[in-house]
């Protein structure tokens, strides 16, 4: 019984990890950079929701629908942030050595986090959206409604992005740039713009996920790093550029962490996921599904 | 035999007084050959890149290895040098089985390798490229000491021989492609190899540079370095090799002196794709 | 990833944020003979809500002392008190750097302790190394006082005492608990109070069905609460701070955890806790080393009651033991200055050692390891039949540099839970000697609320 | 210092001359630095400002140690602070729980870090470039979690140390560690060992094909980096009187030390030291002028470094010197007397290989 509860807890949160990881994988695959500031984009999304709920008459607006209405706003806001980040900064680093991109994006994450602290102080805040009776019970397993909504929200965001990449013209352009930027340029794709759009999409899905995190848990400036590192583990586990891989990876990581919390002790969850990162890199750099993460060493 | 890269340079190579007579260095065939390959086989999934090849290179020889693209030449070199390990068969250096040795151990045993795409240390100065290639790093004592004077003198001598001494302070990466190829050759000589595997030494360089490369190869050979080289430029191969092996689709289809090979119908068919 | 392990902490030894430099008002400052009290406090980060309470009490007490003419020190001169209190963002190393700089660059000799044991422990090491007395009302872990540090004085009873009185209360009820669940945050204070709880539960023969530690940066206790539910423990003890007390209260209902008693060692009695949890916070217990209705004499405020109304009128919220302890910290220094023949860190330290006086907080006297000997009272949030509503006053917390109202986005009347019912009030339920009301034990199940 | 003091005939570009003159006198400069450093405490440096100078020494050692692996050998570690943490915990545990005296406790920190480096290195050194960086970051994060959960490391609250030597002792300990490491680095970069490390950085495949067992060299450089990082971690642990997972494995320092090495000039010896001194001072100035904003400043500096100065100050100077030299000598290639009769012109340089500055005749 307890096992199913933990796994369910894991899946509910795992969907959020997956949505964040999908954005992270997109950037790594298409623009070729590892974005250590990805978690900060999620944090910004969370604050967008928090402030909109607070300003929309925080006292009255306790309902869930107001909170959900803020998700599109977070998506749009973070898309803009992502697009600008790519155009102004990341283009200069895109084809630099992978290690330098780690450094630059770490610098960006420090700046974003510090500005958040200066602007809103480091105090944790939570959006009070909730339900009268917060949980539904299926076969003895307690599923908080708010988390269920966040679960479906995250899955929706992931599928939306996947559909976008699969069907639309811009989506195909993005995948083309992912496989071969030079060839893409030859057939007339504006690679710089495509990369900026990709960064925008990656930031948007992170921001949207951030909104859900603000609803079900809490938001504070320092929360970003944890989500960036989880994305690392998921992408290395699920394989680069493979959205199904990231989805499965996210759900699995969520379950592994909750099972560790349930059976071993929750102080070991982070130790487990980071060890997973190192082991996976050594054992199976190509991940389960996607293209090999390993550098094409001559 | 119309070699696909036949160019008028072939003519001036003849009358420019570069003696093309096969070197009459006496090839003493006593004892084991410097390199012997037995039943060497390497498969990649279904494809058999090298199919039960037998070959040998004796002390002081210059042996050519030719064949159309994809005939397994570079794979053969990789197996000999230990960069890849064969599925069947074995490799012998002076009679000693080295099939399972790691690449750096085989290289350390006197086998130099020049790659198809020039590989040098482009972040270091030309002189340092030479000094780091000196074969004197065997003992730990030498390891933690600045390069010895003999090494410096040898480096100076070799750089002068390939006319790169003037650029010794420059970062190797800043030199032209041809100069980098010469540097790579000089670095290999610096490591005193007994056997030198060369993958298309004449590839991608202009005719005058090719002439210089041939001179340097002969000079090195006379200096006691046995050479085993892959080359598409037929004139170069036929001109410099004592013996030639021909590969097609991973199989050895012919071996012998340049003259035998040129008149061997099977070789012509292989090249024209009628095999 | 521990939220506190944020990059913001990484320049701990170098970075420090200056927030407040409060100079005393009044005339005595003319000749510049002032005494400066300095320290760091968690004015942002996870413990911001509680750190705020200490700052308010420090300011209020200094303000009242200076208005009454300052401190007549034993050396015959009157001094005005001045305070420099910097925000350490709930980060131990930042706090250490602040104390080091206050001592080296600002020449501060008398140190006001920070909040929480995790920060106080290393800060106390700085005090010892620089031989400056530090009086603190925010760090309760016994480890602080077991290092043989002769320069640290604590006004809070040690952490291991926090859960004891609540367990005693539960054992004294008609149907005492047979099994208990213990969830402990991984920081110094919580681990010490968890140790105290384990000892007491074993003494009382209560089976500890769940005993789990979670990292400070966890913001999701669902799985742990799932374990508590399936273990059918009778009572739930949370050894942690306000952040997790809020998370526990909110998620208990979602995970449908029904226990006879739910108790959090710290942070479950503040107004901001009640605002964030709303009805979910009802019936929750919390220990306190101070009784709001006590009748102690106080040289600065007059009496406990006057201290309570002073805080309410000045800051608009009902004080709790953090405020009372904060006020007592300032008064301890004041009393020591009065008793020494000449100022100086060592003399003041010796005076504090054998100080003996009463304040709104209660009797202040330190054992030879530097910690006060006090037992805890037990409070419970009880939905109000009538009378003065305690829980709804708006809390002012966390000063934001940009000045906008940035209190926690309160979810408004009664939080998400339906039907806010009457506002609830925290009342003393144990020990019986000072009981305001009977404890509502066992707590009603979620279905009955 | 790549300026080889070769017996070059003919003139050398002015900048190249200055650089090679400096590199010849590197030992002299190092001696000067140590002498001045040793003199400061007697000249009244104490209290807060002493901690600032100590911080400079610590970061110099961290940046130089990173450079041994990242700059010289081309293996950019993103987890060097793990060795710092191992060192700090070793000294703290020895001092507090085993009652070991101060100096032996600090001395033990280095070797313990080396043992960890050997074990970790066997696994992560098989990866390269960005993936090596990610793996080492993973190692650092695992170390943080393990230290938080184990009893002997004092869990989340860490270790508190009380009876430690006065600050001047620490000052000389840190100066000594820096001086020893600078000397070792200066010596090694001029020996075959140093050349081979650079060879591995530039083309590990070619080094293997030249008979170099690159695993030994990479691991040696990794262990050397761990040795000094561990030592400075051990000394810092005692100096700070407080070691906890957050500060001992400081994630911010982890990135800052890399930035310092890059700003100064990765792959040189002077670069990381100058970068460390410069950036530490800059951060302190920003911190005192607008407290609280120093971290934003650091973030911006990191971004600027990677975009504008990937080769760092010293690296760029050397690059410029090499380029100027080429003009003076490259023009008449091999102007040297021994030029062969052939009308020697650089071969038809392949456009994408040759550097645009190369004069294409």
Question: What report would you give on this structure?
Answer:
The complex is a heterotetramer of chains A (298), B (275), C (449) and D (361). Chain A is globular, with a radius of gyration of 19 Å. Chain A is mainly alpha-helical and 298 residues long. Chain A has eleven helices and two strands, in the order H-H-H-H-E-E-H-H-H-H-H-H-H. In chain A, helix 2 (38-55) crosses helix 3 and helix 5 (145-167) packs antiparallel against helix 8. Chain B folds into two domains: 31-110 and 193-210 and 225-275, Rossmann fold (3-Layer(aba) Sandwich), CATH 3.40.50; 119-192, no CATH class. The two termini of chain B are 16 Å apart. By secondary structure, chain C is of the alpha/beta class. Chain C has two domains: 10-158 and 292-364, Response regulator (Rossmann fold, 3-Layer(aba) Sandwich), CATH 3.40.50; 161-291 and 376-397 and 405-448, 3-Layer(aba) Sandwich (Rossmann fold). In chain C, 32% of the residues lie in helices and 19% in strands. Chain C has helices spanning 48-67, 92-104, 117-130, 142-145, 164-171, 188-203, 222-231, 242-254, 271-277, 304-315, 321-339, 345-353; strands at 17-22, 34-41, 71-72, 78-87, 110-112, 134-136, 152-154, 179-185, 207-214, 235-239, 261-264, 285-288, 297-298, 302-303, 357-359, 362-364, 377-383, 424-430. In chain C, strands 1, 2, 3, 4, 5, 6 and 7 form a seven-stranded mixed sheet that branches. In chain C, strands 9-8-10-11 form a four-stranded parallel sheet, with helices on both faces. In chain C, strands 12-17-18 form a three-stranded antiparallel sheet, with helices on one face. In chain C, a hairpin with a 5-residue loop joins strand 3 and strand 4. In chain C, helix 1 packs across helix 11 (321-339) and helix 11 packs across helix 12 (345-353). Chain C is globular and about 65 Å long. Chain C starts with 16 loop residues before the first strand and ends in a 19-residue tail after the last strand. By secondary structure, chain D is mainly alpha-helical. Chain D has a single domain (14-327), classed as ABC transporter involved in vitamin B12 uptake, BtuC. In chain D, helix 3 packs antiparallel against helix 9 and helix 4 packs across helix 9 (214-240). The longest helix of chain D is centred in the middle third of the chain and has 27 residues, at 214-240. Chain D starts with 13 loop residues before the first helix and ends in a 31-residue tail after the last helix. Residues 1-10 and 331-361 of chain D have low confidence and may be disordered.
């Amino acid at each position: 019984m307890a096992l199913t509860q933990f796994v369910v807890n894991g899946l509910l949160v795992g969907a959020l990890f997956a949505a964040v990881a999908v954005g992270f994988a997109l950037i790594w695959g298409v623009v070729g950079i590892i974005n250590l500031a990805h978690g900060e984009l999620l944090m910004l999304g969370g604050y967008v929701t928090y402030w909109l709920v607070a300003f929309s008459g925080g006292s009255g607006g306790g309902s869930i629908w107001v909170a959900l209405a803020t998700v599109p706003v977070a998506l749009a806001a973070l898309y803009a942030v992502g697009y600008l980040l790519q155009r102004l900064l990341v283009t200069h680093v895109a084809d630099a050595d992978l290690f330098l991109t780690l450094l630059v994006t770490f610098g960006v994450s420090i700046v974003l986090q510090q500005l958040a602290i200066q602007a809103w102080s480091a105090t944790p805040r939570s959006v009070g959206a909730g339900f009268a009776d917060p949980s539904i019970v299926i076969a003895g397993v307690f599923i908080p409604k708010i988390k269920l909504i966040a679960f479906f929200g995250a899955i929706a965001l992931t599928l939306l992005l996947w559909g976008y990449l699969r069907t639309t013209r811009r989506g195909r352009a993005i995948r083309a740039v992912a496989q071969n930027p030079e060839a893409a340029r030859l057939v007339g794709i504006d690679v710089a713009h495509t990369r900026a759009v990709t960064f925008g999409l990656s930031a948007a899905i992170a921001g949207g996920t951030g909104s859900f995190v603000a609803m079900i848990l809490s938001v504070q400036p320092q929360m970003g790093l944890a989500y960036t590192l989880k994305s690392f583990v998921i992408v290395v586990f699920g394989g680069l550029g493979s959205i199904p891989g990231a989805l499965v990876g996210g759900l699995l990581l969520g379950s592994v962490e909750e099972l560790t919390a349930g059976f071993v002790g929750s102080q070991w969850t982070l130790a487990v996921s980071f060890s997973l990162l190192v082991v996976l890199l050594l054992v199976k750099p190509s991940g389960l599904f996607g293209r090999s993460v390993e550098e094409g060493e001559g | 035999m119309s070699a696909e890269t036949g160019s008028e340079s072939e003519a001036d190579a003849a009358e420019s007084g570069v003696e093309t007579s096969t070197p009459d260095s006496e090839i003493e065939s006593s004892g084991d050959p410097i390199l012997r390959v037995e039943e060497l086989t390497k498969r990649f999934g279904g494809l058999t890149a090298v199919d039960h090849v037998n070959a040998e290179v004796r002390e002081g020889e210059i042996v050519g290895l030719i064949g159309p693209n994809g005939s397994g030449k570079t794979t053969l070199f990789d197996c000999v040098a230990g960069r890849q390990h064969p599925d069947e068969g074995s490799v012998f250096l002076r009679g000693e089985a080295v099939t399972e040795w790691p690449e750096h151990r085989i290289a350390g045993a006197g086998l130099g390798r020049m790659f198809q795409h020039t590989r040098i240390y482009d972040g270091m100065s030309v002189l340092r490229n030479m000094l780091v290639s000196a074969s004197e790093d065997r003992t730990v004592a030498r390891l933690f000491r600045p390069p010895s004077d003999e090494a410096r003198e040898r480096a100076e001598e070799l750089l002068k021989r390939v006319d790169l001494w003037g650029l010794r302070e420059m970062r190797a990466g800043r030199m032209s492609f041809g100069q980098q190829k010469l540097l790579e050759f000089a670095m290999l000589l610096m490591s005193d190899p007994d056997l030198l595997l060369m993958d298309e030494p004449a590839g991608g360089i202009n005719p005058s540079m090719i002439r210089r490369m041939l001179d340097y190869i002969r000079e090195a050979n006379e200096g006691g370095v046995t050479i085993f080289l892959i080359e598409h430029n037929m004139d170069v191969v036929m001109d410099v090799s004592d013996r030639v092996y021909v590969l097609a689709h991973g199989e050895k289809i012919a071996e012998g002196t340049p003259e035998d090979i040129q008149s061997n119908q099977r070789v012509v068919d292989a090249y024209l794709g009628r095999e | 990833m521990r939220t506190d392990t944020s990059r913001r902490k990484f320049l701990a030894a170098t970075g420090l944020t200056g927030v407040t430099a409060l100079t005393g008002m009044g005339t005595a400052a003319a000749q510049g003979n002032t005494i400066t009290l300095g320290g760091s406090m968690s004015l942002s980060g996870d413990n911001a809500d509680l750190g705020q309470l200490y700052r308010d009490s420090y300011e209020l007490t200094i303000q009242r002392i200076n208005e009454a003419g300052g401190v007549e020190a034993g050396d015959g001169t009157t001094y005005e008190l001045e305070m420099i209190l910097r925000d350490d963002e709930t980060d131990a190393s930042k706090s250490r750097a602040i104390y080091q700089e206050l001592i080296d660059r600002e020449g501060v000799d008398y140190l006001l302790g920070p909040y929480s044991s995790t920060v106080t422990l290393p800060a106390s090491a700085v005090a010892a190394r620089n031989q400056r007395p530090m009086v603190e009302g925010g760090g309760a872990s016994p480890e602080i006082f077991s290092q043989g540090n002769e320069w640290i004085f604590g006004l809070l009873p040690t952490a291991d005492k926090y859960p004891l009185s609540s367990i005693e209360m539960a054992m004294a009820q008609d149907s005492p608990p047979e099994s208990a669940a213990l969830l402990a945050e991984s920081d110094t204070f919580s681990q010490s109070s968890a140790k105290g709880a384990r000892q007491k539960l074993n003494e009382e023969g209560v089976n500890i069905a769940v005993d789990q530690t979670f990292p400070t940066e966890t913001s999701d206790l669902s799985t742990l609460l799932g374990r508590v539910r399936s273990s059918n423990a009778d009572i739930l003890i949370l050894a942690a701070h306000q952040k997790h007390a809020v998370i526990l209260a909110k998620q208990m209902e979602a995970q449908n955890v029904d226990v006879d008693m739910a108790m959090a060692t710290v942070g479950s009695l503040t107004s901001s806790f009640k605002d964030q949890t709303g009805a979910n916070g009802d019936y929750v217990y919390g220990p306190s080393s101070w009784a709001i209705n006590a009748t102690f004499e106080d040289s600065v405020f007059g009496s406990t009651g006057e201290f309570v109304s002073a805080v309410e009128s000045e800051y608009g919220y009902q004080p709790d033991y953090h405020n009372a302890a904060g006020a007592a910290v300032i008064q301890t220094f004041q009393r020591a200055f009065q008793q020494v023949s000449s100022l100086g860190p060592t003399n003041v330290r010796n005076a504090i050692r054998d100080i003996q006086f009463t304040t709104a907080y209660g009797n202040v006297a330190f054992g030879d390891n530097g910690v006060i000997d006090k037992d805890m009272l037990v409070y419970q949030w009880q939905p109000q039949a009538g009378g003065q509503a305690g829980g709804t006053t708006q809390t002012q917390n966390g000063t934001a540099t940009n000045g906008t109202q940035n209190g926690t986005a309160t979810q408004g009347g009664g939080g998400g839970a339906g039907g806010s019912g009457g506002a609830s009030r925290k009342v003393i339920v144990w020990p019986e000697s000072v009981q305001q009301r009977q404890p509502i034990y066992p707590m009603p199940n979620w279905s009955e609320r | 210092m790549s300026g080889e003091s070769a017996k070059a005939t003919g003139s050398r570009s002015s900048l190249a001359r200055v650089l090679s003159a400096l590199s010849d006198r590197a030992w002299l400069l190092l001696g000067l630095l140590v002498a001045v450093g040793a003199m400061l405490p007697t000249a009244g440096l104490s209290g807060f400002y002493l901690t600032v100078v100590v911080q400079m020494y610590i970061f110099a050692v961290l940046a130089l140690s990173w450079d041994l692996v990242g700059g010289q050998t081309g293996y950019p570690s993103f987890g060097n602070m793990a060795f710092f943490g191992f060192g700090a915990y070793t000294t703290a545990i020895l001092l507090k729980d085993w009652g070991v005296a101060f100096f032996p406790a600090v001395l033990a920190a280095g070797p313990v870090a080396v043992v960890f480096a050997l074990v970790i290195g066997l696994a992560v050194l098989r990866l390269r470039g960005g993936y090596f960086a990610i793996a080492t970051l993973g190692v650092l994060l695992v170390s943080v979690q393990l230290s938080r959960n184990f009893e002997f490391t004092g869990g989340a609250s860490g270790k508190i140390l009380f009876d430690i030597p006065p600050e001047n002792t620490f000052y000389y300990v840190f100066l000594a560690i820096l001086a020893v490491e600078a000397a070792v680095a200066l010596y090694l970069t001029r020996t075959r060992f140093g050349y081979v490390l650079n060879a591995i950085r530039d083309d590990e495949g070619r080094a293997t094909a030249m008979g170099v067992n690159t695993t030994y060299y990479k691991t040696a450089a990794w262990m050397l980096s761990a040795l000094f990082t561990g030592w400075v971690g051990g000394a810092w642990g005692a100096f700070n009187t407080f070691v906890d997972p957050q500060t001992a494995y400081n994630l911010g320092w982890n990135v800052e030390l890399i930035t310092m090495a890059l700003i100064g000039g990765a792959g040189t010896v002077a670069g990381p030291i100058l970068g460390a001194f410069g950036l530490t001072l800059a951060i302190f100035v920003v911190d005192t002028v607008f407290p609280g904003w120093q971290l934003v400043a650091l973030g911006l500096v990191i971004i600027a470094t990677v975009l504008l100065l990937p080769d760092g100050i010293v690296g760029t100077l050397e690059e410029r010197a090499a380029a100027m030299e080429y003009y003076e000598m490259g023009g008449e290639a091999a102007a040297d007397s021994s030029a062969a009769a052939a009308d020697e012109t650089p071969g038809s340089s392949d456009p994408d290989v040759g550097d645009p500055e190369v004069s294409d005749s």
